[in-house]
Amino acid sequence: MHRIFTTSVASVFPHYVAKVEKKGRTREELDAVLTWLTGLSPAEVEAHLEAGTTFQEFFDAVELNPDVSLITGSVCGVKVQEVEDPLMRRIRYLDKLVDELAKGRPLEKVLRSS
Q: pLDDT tens for residues 8-55?
């Protein structure tokens, strides 16, 4: 089991916020990405953060957007579509979307649709 699985989302989330804000994006845009990916509202995401939910618990509690298969490319040199462990792939999907947002990709393109 990878260490990230038992890490709380709340311990990593400030890094996501800092990453996107450093590049001129907003917390609201990050919330839109999370809403698209997980189907959770910003308030529901906040509840998970306050509860100290681990990545495993977080992704077990959500149903991913049916268009996640459209998320392709590399994160840390690893192609997200080739990650074999289902939980790690879900985490990498989130990482990839945060990276795209931080790199200035238009929100409409980050939030893929079929």
A: 999 999 999 999 999 999 999 999 999 999 999 999 999 999 999 999
**Partner residues linked to 74 by β-bridges:** 79
Q: Are 16 and 96 in contact (CB under 8 A)?
A: no
Beta bridge partners of 54: 8
> Is the whole model's pTM more than 0.85, yes or no?
yes
Q: DSSP E strands: which ranges in the chain?
A: 74-75, 78-79
Q: Coil, strand or helix: which one is 84?
A: coil
The token pair that represents 1 in the structure block: 């089991």
pLDDT in tens, 67-91: 999 999 988 888 998 999 999 999 9
Query: C-alpha 10: how far from its chain's center?
Result: 12
Give the separation between CA 61 and CA 57, rounded to whole angstroms: 6
Q: What is the spatial distance between Cα 54 and Cα 59, in angstroms, rounded to a whole number?
A: 9
